[in-house]
Amino acid sequence: MDAVAHAPAVEHGPNLRQRLAARGFDAVTLLAIPAAVFSLLLFVYPFAFGFVLSFEPKAGGDWLANYRRFFSDPFLYETIAKTLWLAIPVTLVNLLLAIPIAFRVRLMRNQRLLTTLLVLPITLGTVLVAEGLLNYLGPQGWFNRTLMTIGLISQPLKLVHNYWGVFASLVITGFPFTFLLTLSYVTGIDPALEQAAATLGASAWQRFRHVYLPLLMPGLAITFCLSFVQAFSVFPSAVLLGEPGGATRVISIVAAQAAFEEYDYSMGSAIAMIMGFVQLGIVVAVLASRGLFYRGPASGAKG
Amino acid sequence: MTIALSQFDEVRLDRVSRDFGALNALRDVSLSIRRGEFIALLGPSGCGKSTTLNCIAGLLPVTGGAIWLDKNRVDTLRPEERGFGMVFQNYALFPHLNVRQNIGFGLKMRGRPKAEIDRKVDEALSLVRLQGQENKLPGQLSGGQQQRVAIARAIVIEPPLVLMDEPLSNLDAKLRLEMRAEIRRIHNELGATTIYVTHDQDEALSLADRIVVLRDGVIRQVGSPKELYEEPAHFDVADFMGFRNKLKGKVVAVDGNRAVLDVEGARISGVVRERVSVGSGAYAAIRSDDLMVGEGGQNAIGAIVDTIEYRGREFVGTAHSAGGLDFVFRSHLPVEPGSRVHLRADDERVLVFAEPIQGRH
């Protein structure tokens, strides 16, 4: 009888802590607080501040005045197209270079040396790369001199202070990043899948086309987005190696000019916001297209 | 049935070797496989059985010797040119393709017309009994179903040779028995020629027409399951075929095909399987089924029981001798752990092997 009398005690539902734990909240969740504070102070707050500031035009006028000015002045709005015209081809070139190289490197035993060599340009920074390219690709640089010595050209090619100077610089500084990401996606695919495809009669190209590429697409989309965002925010090399008044007058130059030459922080913020939304638009479009592809684990084993 | 496997008379491995740097994974492996045979490559891990299979499939280049399909040399061909079907240990199904697309992959790569692909895939589906699952992705299938897809995918291209690399090792015990029977059924229905890699001697014994025992990259014995089970040629083959009692001793007498060993003072006589001479070291190998608790005397050795397990009709126990030999034995009656018993075996059930030379054979 006693046992029966005590039984109803169990019928109390789980307490608050148990209910929270069932939803994934427990003491460990507190460890996320430093990261949350960090991103709140260094990302969310400045972003929100700039967002609000962009609606408070320095010269007065209504809250959309900055944006109206940007989109009515070709000297300003054309920078979007100019930046895209740099960032998208550069990202595609990097990706198209990275894929075959990653396929080769995946089979190598000594990946570390190569990886170190590739990471070097990232650590050097864009300014050093730009200075180096100015010397190397300039009218008196090795590249032009070599071509002239062997008689391929009679006049030096103009490779700096124009579109191609910035293009080269962005490829050099962006490639390692694109490559390392691509390599990690390529090596993440079970090599047994390729072997299986080979025993089923698929040629090297068919194995790439029908096995690797579909499995890589989601990863390549992410790689594209991250590389694109880096290239889109190009600034130092556009100034140093490009033609900041013309062909490589990219959007970040315009934002910097507004903020630090005209001291119009409000306009600067508005341009930064526009820049952000263009990036966001491209990234969302690319990521949405991932839905067209298989996105599960890339291994042939039972999961 | 329109899945008709390409016909040939013989696959021949001619002194095939494979080195990984200084390591000889395979040394001079020669083997002839006739059409319709089911061959099991059996051996412990690292013996070279998977290497052999990968060399035949073309996934690993051979570093010596040649592989022939009748009069055609195939070891110089790329894997996609050999056309052998292969079933991988982890199945290696394409995760982004559904069952139908996985099975039809090989035919599609060959540029076959869609109608033919559909018809052959349907047949393969019914052969492996997977009708109704054709639109699922591999990730939605159970392990056994994935295994069936892998088999269907390999046979639908009508390969002269089907290669299977430990195909059952990822399945649970019950499913493994089921799929074992399935694999043999499919082999028989298609009249396929199969090379099957396994480290499980039960699998090899129950499936194969002939078993090839490999060790350290060398073929140790080739024979029918019965031959290997009853007449292992070497100590290590016996070890692998379930002779769990290995009694080390010294030869005291040899008479024809019988030899008597001194094992810790006990006299053990058995059938000579490898040349031994009086005074040399030798092993007496006895299956746990043949070592029984009994009276002392002929062919018996004293031991202390360690554990005893009830197995339904009888007991299986482990024991050790004063000299440190370990035994696995059978008993009709329960014996107490810690008690002293005599373990004996009929002398025709005892096989005598020369002491193996350490290291490479």
UniProtKB/TrEMBL annotation, chain A:
The chain crosses the membrane at residues 27-48, 84-105, 117-138, 163-186, 211-235, 270-293. This is ABC transporter permease. Its main location: membrane. It is a multi-pass membrane protein. The lineage of its organism: Bacteria, Pseudomonadati, Pseudomonadota, Alphaproteobacteria, Hyphomicrobiales. Belongs to the binding-protein-dependent transport system permease family. CysTW subfamily. Keywords: Cell membrane, Membrane, Transmembrane, Transmembrane helix, Transport. Gene3D superfamilies: MetI-like (1.10.3720.10). InterPro entries: MetI-like (IPR000515), MetI-like_sf (IPR035906). The keyword Transmembrane applies. PROSITE patterns: ABC_TM1 (PS50928). It is found in: Cell membrane. CDD domains: TM_PBP2 (cd06261). Residues 80-288 form the ABC transmembrane type-1 domain. It comes from Microvirga splendida. The keyword DNA repair does not apply.
TrEMBL record, chain B:
Pfam families: ABC_tran, TOBE_2. The keyword Acyltransferase does not apply. Belongs to the ABC transporter superfamily. The keyword Ribosomal protein does not apply. GO terms for molecular function: ATP binding. This is ABC transporter ATP-binding protein. Transmembrane segments: none annotated. Keywords: ATP-binding, Nucleotide-binding, Transport. Residues 11-241 form the ABC transporter domain.
